[in-house]
User: Fold these one by one.
Assistant:
Number 1:
Amino acid sequence: QECRIDLGGCCPRVYIRSSHSCLPTPRSGRFLLPTSPPHFPVEMIRGAALLLYICLVLGSLSSASSVGEKQVAPSGTSDEDVRADECASADPGRPEEGAGTAAAEDDDDDEDEWCDECDWTEIVEALGCTGIVHRPVPTDEEFMIMRRAYETAVGAEDSSLSPVVGGHAFVVPHRAGPAAGGKGRGIFAAAPVAKGAPVWTSRQMATFYDAYQFRAFLGAIPADNACDVLYWAYSHTDEDNGKPRVSVELDHTALCNDAGADGEKNVGCDIEAAAQHGDGDCEQAYALRDIQVGEEFLCRYTDFSAGEDGWEAFGL
């Protein structure tokens, strides 16, 4: 004979066969229970009780496993809220190496751009810029990443680097590395340079036309490089329309240190030399005196920077 037992949906269909005598055996969701004709009702009840017990045990294990696999958020709290709490508890300091772009350090937000209302100081704090003096010289690959990010930020039509190319803007042999006197990094002559000779061009100078472009650029490059740019960039006034601008050299020329109040700059604009080279706007940097091998190239920042007032006018 064959009887069907309904256990309220706990288990699949269960059949009791009187002609079988073996321990319960899984088979496509069915269990075969040992019964005998003289004691059929008793055996059926025992079998049903055993099945009910098995179902309860399996159900308990399944519930425990589900809780272990995923922590359920409190009532009324979304997964996004849980992730936000985890992010809020993270260390807000400097990102770890290889952590990606500056914007990637923050939670994704389709409505707001990274630090889109920050001023210069707030951007420095957001990036966690520290120890700039001890930073290594960026690689050629890092400079290329920055140049491409710049052109994306301002658009190819307005890019001062278009077309983006590799290499540095130096006209003379040079090397970049640590500088003495706690100045961090610097650039040095790798061959003698005669007075009046062009030292570098403005080929790798990236110019930004508003603060939103500059912030977007900083958010699109690695955080360490963004910190470098913040220290290299300078404000100035557009000679054509008088509007505030911010520029930064995206190559080794950015490492030119200031000569200081009492120091002597050896690189800058030389009107006579510029005229001899057909450079009426003095867009190249010239040797202001003879420079020896190993000597550091030194600039005068006030020659081209508008300082704090320029940054404020630019919106930072």
Number 2:
Amino acid sequence: MTDDTALLVSLNNNPSWLPQEYIQKKIRQILCAALVITVLHLVLLKVFSVLLANRSASSAKTTEKTERESVASEKEKSIILWKASYQATHLLVNLFIGCFGIYHVYNLPSVADVTEKVVGLEEYAIFGCLQAGYQLWALPVGFFFVGETTIMMFHHIAVIVVSSRAIFCTNGFRYYIPFFLGLIEISSVPLSIMNAFKNDKSLIQKYPGAYSNIRIAFGLSFLAARVIMWLPRIMDFNRIIAIMILTSEEISSQAALGATFAAATVLTLMQQYWAFLVIRGLLSGPKKAPVKNE
């Protein structure tokens, strides 16, 4: 048995949960994060609603529509509003979390023993609170109003599972949390901008150069953060969890660790699948938006 394995065996004897008062405080922080993001989204929804109303009013002066076309147009406007405000909220939240993560990742000790990677560093549980609140907002909005894909629904749930261990458990594996739940979100900032272009194809026609540059920025940041930087960290993260599962004598502890291992593995597979799509997209170049006949 190696020294690291012996240490991990001993860590299995730690209490499963952090103190109750601490957990209650973190639950309040999660709810606060979800509330702040929800309010931000509602404000952006109102802003985009006003902007779209002004745009529609100017175009209505030159266009007459039937009643059926008006109803269809209103439904289309509603979808556009929700998607635009949803992407704008993602952009702002990911920018904050990503920059917050970058600061803490580069202030972590470059070398840490296995104990430091598993216990302590409770101050980094804030990343879990931010992400849990973020996903609790994204799940219902994405499902009911935006039409998020099934894979994204599973992504939100997997992030909540990993976040929950960092927030509530003594063995919270918080050493890597500023990276997994923080820094990597910086790659989602150009993604939000790129999705805004996709949601309004006229923007691609007007600003093809900007769209091409943002695609490249997204692709490079995604591959750097979610492949090159992600893989060595997740391998170490899952290695430690696997040893603790195999050496634990409690079924409940094995199940909880197994859930974290499974969620981290699912997230990794998703990142690599998306990386494949990103590389394919970069190699094929941007698709030209169809030109509408006026």
Number 3:
Amino acid sequence: SPPVITLAIGDGANDVSMIQAAHIGVGISGQEGMQAVRASDFSIAQFRFLVRLLLVHGSWAYKRVAKFILFYFYKNMMNVLTEYFFAFHTSFSGQILFADWLSLGYNAAYSSFGCIFGFCLDQDVKALTILKNPRLYEYSMYGQGFDMSKFFGWMMLALWHGSVCFFIPMYYMSFSPVRADDGEVMGHWFTGTTSFVCLILVVHLKLGVMVYSWNWLVWFGIGISLLFFFITFTMLCTYWMSTLWGWQEEMLGMSSLLFTTPKFWLCLLITPVAACIPDFCLKYMQTIYYPFPHNLLHEKELGYDENGYKKPDKGGSTVVTPN
């Protein structure tokens, strides 16, 4: 049976204590004043709006909050585990893997805009579909979006992604540490910065696997995060910020060294793909073999029938695409 969660709804001052005692309080703004509205968590104008508040916005909000919490734990754990792998690799010497300013911007800017726009606006199915299929509310009613098994699974993915983002750049970039064209030695900061860039790309690729409704705001959030990272990283590697201001002297010229090295770009292609292969496989298996009701209805909204074939478009095209 689902856990007991109480909801209280009222429109007058005599309902304030009931609204405050319940898990969720809903106030109706009417002719009996605004006391109930001020004491409530949510406010509606008419009682009939409660159905849409619970079934539609409640379902959306639960899935958004669940994914938001799991994703934030995941991306921070992946960042920390990468540093832990480096600590083991260097016998706990105290040396850091990432530059200080890169670590400071990771959680504040480089990996936040995409998940804010992606999760806060995400809709797995449309509102009309939810109202026609009230069973979709069972997903949130039984807490299927967030539990200890899901949390443990996400931490395992963070462990895998962190290990890939560390070991592939560490051993691939240090395999031939001297550039053949000019003899430039690619040292510790070269490898650590490559690992950090791979970390940023894996986080956004994982975000793309989770988002259902892609719109221009989601693309804008992901684009602004990546653009802001590469701009600030390039600025950090300039003389007037790294040396003259003394922000990160070891990063001087690092951007030009990385951007002119073919191995760097090849590593940016190999590492995110290798890291997210389990995510793609798990997503495929869950959607195809163990689907939730919202997975089936989402595919139906995209135009796929029960056999997994794309329905003809309105123009009468007979071309079908297997799922």
Number 4:
Amino acid sequence: HFGTSVFASSPARVHIVVRRVVSASAAFITMAMVYPASQAVVVGGGLAGMSAANQVIECGGKVLLVDKSSFCGGNSTKATSGINGSATKAQKAKGVEDSVELFTSDTMKGGAKRPEVVKVLCGNSGADVDWLVEKFDLDLSLLARLGGHSVPRTHRGKERFPGMTITYALIQMLEKVAEKTDRARIITKARAHKLLMNGNACVGLVYEKAGKDENAYGPVILASGGFGADFTQNSLLAQYRPDLMHLPTTNGEHCTGDGIKMGEAV
């Protein structure tokens, strides 16, 4: 989603997580049939996790967000180019003609291998950018045309680091809700490591905090990032891209594929 190579694996994750939460009410009803759910549980405090958590609140739910780092933000705060979206209000205001179809075509030409994920990424991108602008009072009015794009669709404001600006706005919004109400909780230095199952349904997770395991119940949204910083011999990086094991990375040390591993385990 961000226009920098550091975030090559981020776009689809952001959109899938964000837009699935739009149907939060339906998700809560479904979960309630298999387990009493009074909250959603989000793993990861980057842009994907914060977007998901804020939309749970927006849809009337409660949310618990856990992040294993000492502070939220993740890799999202490092983005320096902007956030991509097609057919946005900012584009229309500047006379830029763009469409979901054109963005989809550009993305597939750029090497995407999963059309169903590209469809979600591009189809929701415009609404996502407009949501950030309208709900968090962000300035994303500056447009740029980056490599691989047919038209200017990378949005940013005047700030030097748009990723940090966008992500912190969402963090601050969730923190305000957590401070003033019981509808949001943020727990840092909390490493999620196991999904709790009731038959085929995920009903919560286990996270480690201060050396002690804690259970958190509710629908789980995994937004914990990739595995580009896990250089151990049994890592996902070693499994899928052993040719990259000798290279340095700009990923934060938190990027060890925890959410992927939890999902694979069930």
